[in-house]
């Protein structure tokens, strides 16, 4: 069904006063003829696709509602536009559709000159067109109207005094239902009192378009939590309720399942004439969520592939939303992805990933992992317990980092305070490890349909927590100067990104979105990665790695053969010796696979280097008879003051090309920038060979710009920098 079936809005409304779980509203944003090109009729091929969808809905006992959004550019007084609108809806009606919706949401209130002359107000113009279309279609039993003021926060000056809503209530024909989202576009709660006010103004009960689980406004968020904040007692004030769920079909099992539980209580309430006093007891969110989790566990154990026919609906509480032909084909169906059985050590001391065997089998997620998944991606206004704990611990650890800092701002923390800091740090690192293991479990899960819907979200969180974990490990080493670590303080939900976004904003470089927001890799991998502070025992592995990279890039040289440490000393030695606190190591199950080394203050570092490091290297590598390669340690090495004024810090990034997920290189660099920023750096630069196009592109995407070329200084290369 290609584009006409992508990103549909499966909804669960109740027809007029007959409350039944039976409706599916078609309003996809990628059907251009739904909104932008609303005047154009469907082609023969599109007609066939739409008719097939209408028939599919009918075969499943669903009322198919076709929605059209002409409000962006319709001329309400134009007989031509009205004729085109009728022609479009007549075409859909001839395909078997008997329910319709006109949507005038999210548009400008202004009218053109001809409309101003023809109508007394914007509301009058909309209502006039809606009434005429309603009559033209034969007054169908389901006809929905979405006003421009569709929630309390959009009403001017208020719901009860809004001229727009008062006109809609007075002039719109009584057979037309009015859509309403609540106090906000995304309402945390719906109360009988607020809906009673709306009902009085509209002169009919509103039909709720519930955006509680909608995620099309933020590409980093998905909502797996239960239907919540809507007591069953709302029934007396509603014409119906429509649920606008996540764009990803597989993410909607719990939202729709718990909505079914809520609806069941609505039915029981109607039969038993229960008053609203016992509403909260009648519908238990915890009980509904527990039931949904148990049923979803069964679903997750099925070997489903994207694009294949789905299982029949078995749960009595599940909704009648369309559940087939909505997922694109699995692009990696033939991939034999590795299943990570490796466990990351949870001790607060620097972790060493154990090297256990890899398994290629696919298994269902465990119950604990599913509960963690839901807790991490709960609801738009509320995190689940795992996410709450992560944020609370990270906030506390950052605020109390002076307990383990180098100087502690001149105050020595009590042993009890230090122990508390390390205990909470251990708990935070363990939680990060759980998310990393969850990421691997999702990749290797037997249900591939769920994988491809949820992978971008869990991958994004895994990478953000890699940075946060490295930051806490770095603080735990006493590398912080103890200065106040500035994040961005704001009320919850202000920043986009959900849990990933909030963790990001707690980091010193949190405002640099280009460091965090990138598309996921094409080929998911379950490999476990860890970023941690450098230890002296890592030096041998790091030297071996950079020597290997050098040999691959330029071939062997006599100097390298005669002096196996030369490349390591040249690329990493000074940083590891003089400022190891700004050196981070990237490792996977097989060992060290990358590193990032930094210098906080290049100017003072150069003086220390001249005083101790370079003399030692000149003794180790006399310039003759070993050739020009060794002249590196015998040259004057300095950077212009104009560069260091804005970019006082320097970094170097090295990683093996065998990295399956190159995004961890970005996390590694971001972790180092976080440490430099935390200790006061305002800018950082690095040197790149002009022929290294991949590295240039990588750094440019992360906000680095070319600021100095080799001709301005003795060494060859391009200098890239970015402010922090």
From TrEMBL:
Location of the region described as Disordered in the Swiss-Prot/TrEMBL record: 303-329
GO molecular function: [protein]-3-O-(N-acetyl-D-glucosaminyl)-L-serine/L-threonine O-N-acetyl-alpha-D-glucosaminase activity; beta-N-acetylglucosaminidase activity
Entry keywords, A to Z: Glycosidase, Hydrolase, Signal
Catalyzed reactions per annotation: 3-O-(N-acetyl-beta-D-glucosaminyl)-L-threonyl-[protein] + H2O = L-threonyl-[protein] + N-acetyl-D-glucosamine; 3-O-(N-acetyl-beta-D-glucosaminyl)-L-seryl-[protein] + H2O = N-acetyl-D-glucosamine + L-seryl-[protein]
Entry keyword annotation includes DNA damage: no
Signal peptide segment: 1-16
Major enzyme class: hydrolase
Residues of the GH84 domain: 1-267
GO biological process, one term: glycoprotein metabolic process
InterPro entries documented for this protein: GH, Glycosyl_Hydrolase_84, O-GlcNAcase_cat
Stored Pfam families: NAGidase
EC code: 3.2.1.169
Protein name, UniProt field: protein O-GlcNAcase
Organism, as annotated: Cyprinus carpio (Common carp)
